[in-house]
User: Fold this.
Amino acid sequence: MSFRVQPKGFATKSIHAGQEPEQWKSNAVIPPISLSTNFKQNFPPEKDGFKYSRGGNPTRKVLETCLAALDNAKYGLTFSSGLGATTAVLSMLSAGDHIVVGDDIYGGTNRLIRQITSRFGISATFVDPTNLEAFKAAFKPETKLVWIESPTNPLITIVDIKAISVICHQIGDHITLAVDNTFLTSYFQRPLELGADLVCYSLTKYMNGHTDVVMGGLTMNSDKLYQALKFLQNSCGIVPSPFDCYQVNRSLKTLSLRMEKHQSNALAIAKFLESHAFVDKVLHPGLVSHPQHEIALQQTYGYSGVFSFYIKGDLKQSTAFFKALKLFTLAESLGGYESLAELPSLMTHASVPLEDRLKLGITDSLIRLSVGLEDSEDLISDLQQALDIAAKA
Ligand SMILES: *Cc1c(COP(=O)(O)O)cnc(C)c1O
Assistant:
């Protein structure tokens, strides 16, 4: 098994891109947190340069430059949350426009499109993006945006981003393909390389990785998209705080190290679970048993720490399992250094209607893990003892 080979230079970019000490009068090696809401102007005022912190902020600019570099993108933008970034993307649309959306996407994105965007006369078709014929058939003359995620959550389905981008671009230049890359980060997957126009992040998750900031980001190569989204970032006021920008910028310095460890821990655990008698099935793209294992190897540089598995039994057994866990914390969210476990049917995906949940396979025996950076032996022992208890429940 081998994923794509990571080209050299990622860690160097994460540490140095946008961080030049010479940009500060003090030559500070670590970018300062610039809290000022306004900036003294020259007269006549210059077109570029900082004026008011919603429109542009020095600490934010450092982070946006670094973010763009990690995706080999021309531009990066940050927002007050992942959904804030999504709001900006959806705000490029007008009444009458149509969106094609992957049917197994983040619940908050689903809610935003179904309950908010729809009120502004923008319609959406939800479709399985692994079924390319059905995907093609979902387009209408008024389609402007395509929104997909790979892997999906919590079923960890891999979408062939290149195949999707070929279809989008055959249809025409008026289609923007946006890929939510939260689960893999720029370290393991760079959708712009695969033909996407726009990459969206909940920086709250792996990119920050320390479970202490809520933020979103976008990267892109197109000047037109950048101008439109920068305008919306300022006009809608969906901006992050300078302190949070400082934190995320700092977190990116260890992104490659963290992702390598998330990957090796998660793979060791996935293999352990696959061999356990009380585990029915493990959904991890690094395993040969995963239905889209080959696509995962072709389009990604590795895999992160979130994956799911089915235990034998039902709610009674999963309840016993969660009660028995000592090291894994029962909590929503993902991508931090601490290991988490959750039951999507009652937690992250409880708002999905029962019928849809069952159709997708989100049962009471499906458990999602976000494997952290602890020692893998300790994590495996914890799962082992909890599974032993669940098996007797
Ligand atoms: C968490 C998450 C979001 C939303 O991000 P927030 O920062 O919580 O607003 C979007 N997409 C995915 C895949 C996520 O996991």
Notes: The first helix runs from residue 10 to 16. The longest strand covers residues 143-149.
